[in-house]
Description:
With 565 residues, the protein is α/β, with parallel strands linked by helices. It has five domains: 7-175, P-loop containing nucleotide triphosphate hydrolases (Rossmann fold), CATH 3.40.50.300; 181-242, Orthogonal Bundle (Helicase, Ruva Protein, domain 3), CATH 1.10.8.60; 247-359, Zinc Finger, Delta Prime, domain 3 (Up-down Bundle); 370-385 and 406-506, no CATH class; 517-548. The chain contains 23 helices and eight strands. The strands form two sheets. It has a five-stranded parallel β-sheet with strand order 2-3-4-1-5, with helices on one face. Strands 6-7-8 form a three-stranded mixed β-sheet. The chain is extended, with a radius of gyration of 36 Å. 29% of the residues are buried.
Amino acid sequence: MSNYVVLARRWRPRSFDTLIGQDHVTRALIHALDSGRLSHAFLFSGIRGTGKTTLARLLALCLNCEQGTTSKPCGVCGSCREIIAGNHPDVLEVDAASRTKVEQMRELLDMVGYAPTHSRFRIFILDEVHMLSVPSFNALLKTLEEPPGHVKFLFATTELRKLPATILSRCQRYELKRVSEEMLCAHMSRILEQETIPFENNALQLVATAAEGSVRDALSLLDQVISHGNGRVAFETVSQLLGLTNRESTLGIIAHLLTGDGKKLLEALALVYQNGVEPESMVRDILSALHTEVRAKVTLSDADGPGDVTPTDHWKDLVRTVSLEHLQMVYMVLNKGGQELRLTDHPWRALEMLLLRACYLAPIPDLKKLIRVLGSESGPGGGNAMPTESQGPSMPPPSQPVSAAAPLGNPLVSRNQSDPPRMEMAHFPEDWDRFIAFVGVKHRPLAMKLSTQLACLGFRCPDDQQSGRIELQWINDCFGTCEGIRKTVEDFIIQMFAVKIEIVVHAAGAVCRPETLQERDNRVQEEAMDQLERDIRAHPDLCALTTRFNAEILSIAPVEHRSLH
């Protein structure tokens, strides 16, 4: 038992094929080794436990294997065994955190000039290289830029941003990614099967989630779970070890939170507290469940995951009635408050106050429904049922669905009695100016956008012989996207005229375009003002006055209209 080696060390990869989740790095290294295009310095960065030091050792194996430089070292020769054991004389692995002084770096660099004793390369592996001091980095610069041909530098760091740019520019950089939960579960499954340890898949899912993309964290936690569960990996064991709540309790707490029932919320928290759940873990579980439900609400899919209980119909109905905006607000409050739990002396009291704060948030209504209700209550015509100014042109207006039995171009489509009255196709505006005028009566914010931000390149009114077509171009896209304004105008026409028009919107660019209505109005106004100014300056009476008094006309401006009382 005293010679037991933990899973993270016993299952450390010995070849590129067994390293999981870093295919983009291993593929590049394999190609470099097979083609002989090897750099003198490699830098591996990424979060803890993703394989940085492992990759450095694998690369040392490939470089100094007695079979030759290869991407598939034998692992059985004397050189490979010594590197795996960590006692190879030509492979020096240094913890940079314990050798930060410049004197220690100079001692290390003195070894660079010596040829390897019985291997191909002398390899220096510096782990956590960002811990070196500034003088140590400066001492390393010249050697790192032009080292002898028999020297290779392999660096590993979790803090890439702390390295000087002069060091980064001298290395080939490889950034390691977080390993996905699916890969971690599959990896742990293979290990447990070979270790002949029984396990539950949903328990491995909890371990993978807690590891947050780190293979070493996952295997270390798995070792702890095996010991805690007496040689078995069970869901309940992992939940107790991590201090997690079961999903049923979490959904119940969220239900009380969303319905504003503070009394039942405190009662549910008291039961959770008796089970020894950590407050931070409680907040993480609630945030995870809210995130899952929001994604399901947006993507219109089910929100079940491994190890989750199937949500009840009551729960589904509850989430369906809560607006997306309110769910996001609750998530924001809990996410912000959850970060402060570790700073307090009484985490459970802080958790209760945090959940009560989220529980009594004023409910935020569904904006689409609110706009539809306000539009139906505003005067006859129902024009205000279109999107408000805050929605922008990218959000299509709410409209009643058109009957599938009638084509979109047919004005005799079926509609509800509550729909706004629609004009017949014969009364469709004849040009862009009249169309903007009609939109201004029905929906002023939309008319303002169309007149100020869009130029009309072509306007064809629909008739019995041909369909209608409107070709527009954005002046700029600060109010939305081309597809957004196209959909908005198309839906507005369908709602008002019961006819579908082909709408084409070009992006803002160098296309030669006509003026927008606002630009035309401004130009006409300026031309009229210029002409008026010329006429005034040329008026004989004003000329006589300026000559008689030796005066000068500085400026001419229109008189503001004031009401006389």
